[in-house]
Amino acid sequence: MKLFLKDHLGFILIYLLSFIILPVFIDKLDGFKNHYLYFCFLVIVLFTAFLIVRYFRSRKMYIHLEKNNISVENINIHSPNSALERAYAAHLRKVLTLVLDEEDKYANFLDEQETLVSISVHQMKIPVSVIQLLVQSNQIESRDTLEWEKINRECHKLVFLLDQLLSYSRSTKLLSDLKIEQMSLRKTIVEVVNELKNYFIENEIFPEIDVPENITLYSDKKWIKVVIYQLLSNAIKYSDPNQRVSIVYNKGNIMIINQGDTIPDNEIGRVFDLFYTGTQGRKSGESTGIGLYLVKRILTTLDHPFRLSSIDYQTTFSIDFSESIDR
Amino acid sequence: MKYKIMIVEDDVSIRNLLVEHIMKYGYDCVVVDDFENILDVFISEKPHVVLLDVNLPQYDGYYWCRKIRQISNQPIIFLSARNAESEQVMGIESGADDYITKPFYFDVVLAKIRSQIRRMYGEYVQDSENDVLTRGNTSIKFKTVHISTSMKEETLTVTELKLCRVLFETFPNVTTRQQLFSAIWNEESFIEENTLNVNIKRLRQKLNLIDSTLKIKTVRGMGYQLMEEK
Q1: Is the ipTM of this complex over 0.95?
Q2: What is the value of pTM for the model shown?
Q3: Which domain does B171 fall in, by range?
C-alpha cells in the first residue's frame, strides 16, 4: 500500500493540479469559460511533461524488464531513481542473493560429495593394498599360484575402478583445476604404459610405441594421463588375444590402435554417453560407461579434437594435438 | 650390521605385512603404536630408514616428516594411498627422500629401502645369500651373470638372467607367464609377445649345454615349471 501510494503520488498531485488548482486559478484571473482551450493545452503539456519525467526516472527498470538475456552479472540495477525502480532493484537484489545462496549450497554439496568420494576411495584402497600384499607374500610359497593370480587380477580391477571413480568425481571441477604445462609427449605416454604394466601382462597384449622423443605438448599433464590411461585400458580390454596395442604419432595426431571386434556404426556416436555400454561392454560385463565419457569431457575442456573410428577389426582413437604441440 | 627400519603406518594389517616381509630380508623393524610421539620413538630408536604413512591420526605424515628433518638426515620414504602428483610434491617438499603409492609391491618397497641405504651409508647391501642362487646342481651367479654347474659355465643375457631368477625362486612350483613377463618388462622399449618364448628356448639350450639336471617344462595354459631330473 505504501509503495502504491508512493508510486502514484505523482498522478495524484498532477490530478489535483490539473483539475482543481488550475481551473480555480484561471477562473480567478480571467474567468474559466474564456480560456477553456488554453486550459486543455496546459493540462496536456503538464501531463506530457510528467510522463516524460516519470519515464526517465524509471527508465532502467523498463529496459531491464524487457531484457531477454538475464544473467547473474547483469541482474542488478545501479543507482535506481524512482520509488518503484528502487523497490524493483531491491527486489532483484533479494532474488540474486537467493540464487547465489542456492548456488553456494550446491557448490558446497558438490565439494562435500567430492571429498566423500575421495576419502572413501582412499579408505577402500587400503584393504585392497592389504589383499594384494597378502597375495604377494602367499604367492611365493604357495602351489596355487594361478588362484592367487586370479585374486590379484580382481584387485587390479578394483583399483582401476576406484581410480576411475576418483577421476570422475574430480572432473566436476575440471575447468578450475587446469594447469597447462610443458611435457614430453613420449615420456607421458611411456609413464602411462608402465602404470598399466600389469594389465598388459595379464591379457598378454603388448604395447608398441612409435612416438618421436622430441615432441613437446602443452596441456594439463594430469588430465592427459587420465585420458591416455582410459584409452589404453579400453584398447587392452577390447583387443583380441596376442595382438598389439599401437600408439602412433603422425603429424600432430596421436593414434591409439587396437585389433578387436569392430564397434558397430550405430554405436560409435553413443559410446561417449555417460553410462552407455555398447554390445561389447555388455558382453564382457566390465564396462561402466564412465571411461569414454570422462575422456570426452576432458578432451573437450582441454580443446583437443578427437575421433573414434572402427573398421575391419581395427579400432583407432585419434587425438589432434596439432594446436598444442611445439616441434 | 643390521639396518633398522622404522614403520609408521596406522593400518595394522599393512603394518604387520610390511614388518613380516622386511624382517625376512634381514632388517630390524621398529613399529610405532603411539602416533602422538613419533618423534620420541625416532630419537630413542635411531632407525636407519623411516617408512612414513601420510594419513595418520592427530598430525599427518608431512608434519612428522618436517619434525624429523629438523633433527636428522635419515632417509624418509612416504607410503600413501593418494597418488595425485601434488601430494607427492608435497611429500618431497616436506623433506622426504622418496614416495611410494598404495597399492604397492613388496619388491618396490625393498628396492627403495635398499637404494636409500646405499645412498645414505654408501655401501651395497650385502645380500650374500642373493649373490648366488642354487637349485639342484645348477647355480646362477648374479655378479658375473653366469649360470653354472660344477663343471661347465654359460654366460646369460640380462633378460635370461631375469627369467632364471624368477624360475629359480619359484622352484619347484609353477611360474606363471604373467610372473615371467613382469620380470622381463622393459620400462622404455617394452617387450613383444615372442620375447618370452625365444628366451625360454635359449635358456633350455644353455641348461643342456652345462649338463644341468634342471629342465624347464611347459605347463599349458599357465606358464613354465622348473623341474629337477633325477
Answers
A1: no
A2: 0.75
A3: 129-228
